[in-house]
Amino acid sequence: MDEELLPTGNMKLVKDSPYDLSEGTVIGAKEIDIAYLAHKNGIYFLQFNRQIIKLEYDPDFFKYLQVFIPPDRMSLAVEPVSAATNAFNIPHLGRREIAPGEKIKTELRISYEE
What we know:
Elements: E1 33-37, E2 43-48, E3 51-57, E4 64-68, E5 77-81, E6 108-113
């Protein structure tokens, strides 16, 4: 990200960083507003105590997962996205051109269990 919070196209590994959530981690007071490369298996789990939210998505379409916790910490936004912010200017961040009349079909499934 640059000083205006626009992606520069320089991706960094989050493994072993404060943003690494891959092994299941307590978010606690961490400030998070980040786009992760989406898992190739198309599945994410979020867990709070015994509550589990499962996101299943088309990994060929949704290339990133945006995660944001607002300052009031009363919610958590998790959004599979097809391209990163500024992909119009940096094509390798997921810009996809669709021809006139072309159709795209994809799926996103969210389930909840206690």
